[in-house]
Amino acid sequence: MTDGLTVMTDWLASWGTAALKLLIQPYYYIAILFIMLYYRRQLASEREMIHVKLHSWGKETWRSLWTGLAVALPLSAAAAGLGISLPPAAVGLIWAVSLVLMLFRVRYLCFAYAVGLLGIAQFVLSFFPDSLRSGWPGTVAGALRAMDIPALLVLAALLHLCEALLARWQGAALATPLFLAGKRGKVVGAYRLEAFWPLPLFLLLPAGAGGGELPWQPLLGGSLGLVALPVLTGFSDVTQGLLPARKAARIAGRLALSGLVLLGAAALAAWWSPLTLPAALLAVLLREGLFHYGALEERGLSPAFVHPPAGRKVLAVLPGSPAEELGIRPGEVLLKVNGVLLTDAAALHEALRMNPAFCKLEVQNLEGESKYLQRAIYDGDHHQLGMILAPHSEELITAGAKPPGIFGIIGRRTGTLRRRPAQDGLSRGAAAEPAQKPAKG
To answer: pTM (2 decimals)?
Structure first.
């Protein structure tokens, strides 16, 4: 009884110490700051692109924090049960690699990239056992040698499964509408599905690192004592051919499948160490493969958010707007307003002005069937009842093709492109070219 009480006391003390170290580490705060800056830039992009605010950076940051915490606690318990361990000095090493990778692409912040590259570096370092033994290079090399890469790859696989759950749960609600330059210079509607979550994880100390014996037999080693490892996880994708909910479901399915594949490879590497290098390479290649496969799939899809000859395609609906109350959904087609068949955006405004106090709508739903809606119009209602329509083919402002980099996020640069308006005598193709700067002198 006394031994059990002692173990429980030591276990609770380990949790308290790890939580305190999490609060005094800079890494968790760096993750929160990044998320705040990202959503601040997203708000600026929405205002410039669609002239309204769909998301609030404060609410989205808070959602990321509590969701990340809700996922991190059971994941930490699972990691402790499996015996996933990490030397305290390796926390800074993982974050240093992640921050360097972030300078190239924000999506490289994914834990799988950092652990995969560290696994490759550990393999290379194994050929030089007597090198880098003193000074700060020796400290870094020692932390790298002490890392249990197969166990961390198991953690990366579990993070993939958590990302799949979060993408399925929240992905569609986080989508931001865009105007993109599509094929043949025509502008089409699209969505960017991008989200990040800070996960404050707690991992065991490696066996022989000063911790006591665990009261259970872990599969991957580890000893009594915890180390705090904040992780920033998330996903990024763009779709112009699918509705956000369907795209989020596909992202979730592929993340789950890649997580299971990586989990199998990591388990084999834990069983037979020569497989560690292939498993580390697989962690990087799987993540890159997901991104490029998604981009290849999008190139083969027809744009979903373009206007038909008669009617106006709905790209997005503002939360709490009259359109949301009426049950209008993204992807549906607004056919008639007050009996007027819509052929352009001007026709919508004119039809709404025909009766400033009431409107009758005919909408074609996603199944191709017509539904008839009506509602009173009140002062302060959005001028399009809260509907964000797909862009016309010659829209002048489009989003950049590449996702924002870290400096663009910090500087709140939206990355939008301004096209030259069409002029008499110019073809539409010429109108889509960027305007030339006047020559000096």
So the answer is: 0.86
